[in-house]
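Now for one specimen:
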Amino acid sequence: MDWGDNKPRYIEALHTAPITFDLEELGIDFDKVEDYHIKYGDLVVTFKDGTTKTYSNGDVGDVDYKYAYQETIFDSDWYEVEGLN
């Protein structure tokens, strides 16, 4: 096959590792939650009363390397190779 300038060079596989936050264990009543986000493994909760609280690293799971959830083939310039992804 003629790849031209788009010859495969890298295969990147992405895997996941879950972080679980037990709301009951943390004493969080989700009815009182306005918003939340997770950054750097910490759960940041903004409550409806305007307060914000950060909960450090929940139950960090192991990475399952058996199967990747996404695989991508790139050329030498890190562009996706057409027809292979």
About this structure: The helical segments are 23-26.
